[in-house]
Amino acid sequence: MITMAIIVIIMMITFILYFAVEEFRKWSEDLLYYMCDYVKPIFCTEDTYIVRKRDPIEEMFFVLQGRLRMYSFSNSAHGRRVLENGDICGEELVAWFQADPYSSNLHISTRTISTVTRIEGFALMSHDLKRVIIMHHKALIIQSHWRTKMMLRFTRNVQTSTS
């Protein structure tokens, strides 16, 4: 039996996913709940690397508490950014897998992200995100096929009733 605390956590994660990544706003509530099955809690100490530039991005990381430092190839002041509570990194994986959901390659990071303070958050691993996106693509194909079939059936019914 699912406890009330687990239900609240799942609803909170779904809410965060929905607002954190624009593409997820186009997805059904059921698909977002399904994705929550793959989300894992993450705890990191300070000065831990989440991803280094030129390494594959292996996860989407949602910051619930703490601070991350993100900087790009150029070490200029505008190339640095601090991520805090409610921020996300790795969201480019969504576009990467949507472009080619069956790709065996991972997107390569153009920035380094490390913790400034102790971090609490949750992660969605790339292979789990890929699985959810493939399921989303299959659902869209099935829905499209069903709509086409219903439209053809409707057209045939109208033609037979008018003849």
Automatic annotation (TrEMBL):
Is Ion transport a UniProt keyword of this protein?
A: yes
Source organism of the structure: Xanthoceras sorbifolium
Which keywords fit this entry according to its UniProt record? Calmodulin-binding, cGMP, cGMP-binding, Ion channel, Ion transport, Ligand-gated ion channel, Membrane, Nucleotide-binding, Transmembrane, Transmembrane helix, Transport
Q: Which domain of life is it from?
A: Eukaryota
Please give the InterPro entries that the UniProt record associates with this protein.
cNMP-bd_dom, cNMP-bd_dom_sf, RmlC-like_jellyroll
Residue stretches spanning the membrane: 6-21
Give the Cyclic nucleotide-binding domain ranges.
Answer: 23-106
Its name, as the record gives it, is Cyclic nucleotide-binding domain-containing protein
